[in-house]
Amino acid sequence: MFLMPNAVSLAPAVSAQSVAPAFHEPLHTAHDDDAWWRSSVIYQVYPRSFRDLNGDGQGDLAGITAELHQLADLSIDAIWISPFYTSPQRDGGYDVADYCDVDPMFGTLDDFDKLTARASELGIKVIVDLVPNHCSSEHPLFKAALTAGPGSDERAMFIFRDGTGPDGSNPPNNWQSHFGGSAWTRTLNDDGTPGQWYLHLFDSSQPDFNWDNPAVHAEFERILRFWLDRNVTGFRVDVAHALVKADGLPDWGGRPDGCSSDGYPGHAAPMFGQKEIHDIYRRWRSVLAEYDGDRILCAEASIDPLSRLVNWVRHDQMHQAFNFAYLHHPWNAAELRGIITDSLQAFDSVNAPTTWVLSNHDVTRHATRLGENNPEVGLDRARAASLAMLALPGGVYLYQGEELGLPDHLDIPDEQRQDPTFIRTGGERVGRDGSRVPLPWRADEPHYGFGSTSGGWLPQPEDWYTLARDVQQTDPDSTLNLYRSALALRKQLRLGAGSLSWAADYMDTDIIAFLNNDVMVIMNMGESDAYVPSGTVIAGSHADAGAEGVLAPNRCVWIKLN
User: Fold this and answer.
1) For the chain, what is the radius of gyration of the CA atoms?
2) Does the annotation count 414 as an active-site position?
3) Of 91, 103, 238, 408, which one is the catalytic site residue?
4) Predicted TM-score (pTM) of this structure
5) 277 Cβ partners below 8 Å, 6+ apart?
6) What is the pLDDT of residues 389-406, one digit of tens each?
7) pLDDT tens digits along 512-559
8) Would you give the end-to-end CA distance of the chain in angstroms?
């Protein structure tokens, strides 16, 4: 991380700077609001793949507790734990059968309480996942709805409709599931005859709740209070844009995810982004305000453009929202510069922090995604992109294993895949299993130390030895130590609460260059070597980054200017 100069002489893509570089007027100014979530670093834990303490091949809450000190070493503010509730695991725990209990796979409520107590000792806040759009078909409320029949109060908790066409044999509308196929499944009556259809925007085992029903609102306020009473700091809200559906459930010809596509603007999607959703989150914000401390809501809201997304983070609603425009940015300086500019302008317009994220459990890890089928290039770019992200003002989300430079596991045998996307599309869409593979902890132990006696629920690649955490801890140039150093500097220099001004001389180049407080950040996204201004390199994505004022492609540096 802290570099020694090497003698390098290469043709510059940008002229060397003998004087201090020029910067545009600040796009974003430093804030003095000390609310922790405005500049937070939050680490996502996917519990099934984090650490298996009892050796059954499944990660568990006790495993998280045992390794929390490793996360504290990263200078994070909080962990966000993906669902650990009672679930048949048809969709990685996002099919919840009981929102107020722990699945035996992960442990018990007592294990959860031990986890939060240990996190508190280490100064780490705990955020839990909340899945309010849908539940599991094994949830008692849905089972009661099936038994009660059409027109009942029980069925009113979900979205049941009669079919269309002869004998109601066609779905109520043409909506498609995120996971492929129709978003409707037909039920059977007690006598075995075909019955009504129920809506599921995801898997058929995940019926959507009916948020037009006040009883659904009351049920989720009960769930919020249950976890707030157990001292959680807040909630990451899954599919936060989907709860309310348009009246009449009209047909839709656009993408199943409701995002913009040719001829079908995303704001017209009848299953997403309805204005009544915002009243739900205003109420939730007031519930959180009843509790001590700075409790937060973060929206997973696939809404475009950014000018619409910020409606979720106005002062009386969510505190944060995931920035999917940034998550999906290509390796292109002009496009990335535009996304950062648009993000800061949009979120600043409602006095909310933007968030920055490069990987999560639903997308290909950025060490693979940015590599264009070249693992070495992918890791180089991932390290550079991560270092640049950690210097941006606002909040940062990290996904477990990215600090190890983990790629996706691309060669999982078909018979071992578990993602419903893979299953529902007959393998046409490979799904998300590759980013959910169990973590490597110790190189010389079976299964890289993930579990004590057995392999994981998904297979690990055979070449992860050098990526194991214990190996990387002793290597000063490892990706793990890059993250450790950069995160410590981010906190020390208050970059999350800082400013951003674009460097004027780099605006029309393949280089991202900006000033945050008194730190200049430069990332080379081009194919030629570039010169950087004179100054002290305080962080670099690679040992050679910034040496003698030269920045090679796929490298990033932080510089204190002379």
Assistant:
1) 24
2) no
3) 238
4) 0.94
5) 211, 240, 241, 243, 244
6) 999 999 999 999 999 999
7) 999 999 999 999 999 999 989 999 999 999 999 998 899 999 999 999
8) 19
